[in-house]
Amino acid sequence: MISHFQWKPLFKSNKIPGWTISFYHNGMKYHGTYNKDGSINWNGETPATDSLEDIITQIHELMLFHVYE
Questions:
Q1: Taking Cα atoms as reference points, which of 41, 1, 33 lies closest to residue 17?
Q2: What is the dihedral of CA 4, 58, 43, 3, to 10 degrees?
Q3: Helix/strand/coil (H/E/C) assignment for every residue in the chain
Q4: In b/e form, how buried is each residue of 16-42, taking b as 16+ CB within 10 angstroms?
Q5: Which InterPro entries match (predicted)?
Q6: pLDDT at 61 over 90
Q7: Could you tell me how far CA 21 lies from the centroid of its own chain?
Q8: For the chain, what percent of residues have pLDDT higher than 70?
């Protein structure tokens, strides 16, 4: 489970999609860029492969809640 999820727009105009994200998972902090197509470009370390799919699903749900609603 991820915690301390944060996001902010990449651009001043909210009409241009793209967001920076950060969160903690199992005591490690991760950073990335969430693109308008839902893909994530990781900055630095990438979460472990065995939990990556679950983490991405959680991020999609959080972005739907915070940005798109």
A1: 33
A2: 20
A3: CEEEEEEEECCCCCCCCCEEEEEEECCEEEEEEECCCCCEEEECCCCCHHHHHHHHHHHHHHHHHHCCC
A4: eeebebebebeeeebebebeeeeebee
A5: UCP037692
A6: yes
A7: 4
A8: 94
The tokens of 63 are what? 């972005």
* pLDDT at residue number 68: 66
Dihedral over Cα of 9, 15, 65, 61: its sign: negative
**From the CB of residue 59, how many other CB atoms can be counted at a distance below 10 Å?**
20
d(CA 64, CA 57): 11
Token digits for 60?
A: 């999609």
- Residue whose structure tokens are 């969430």: 34
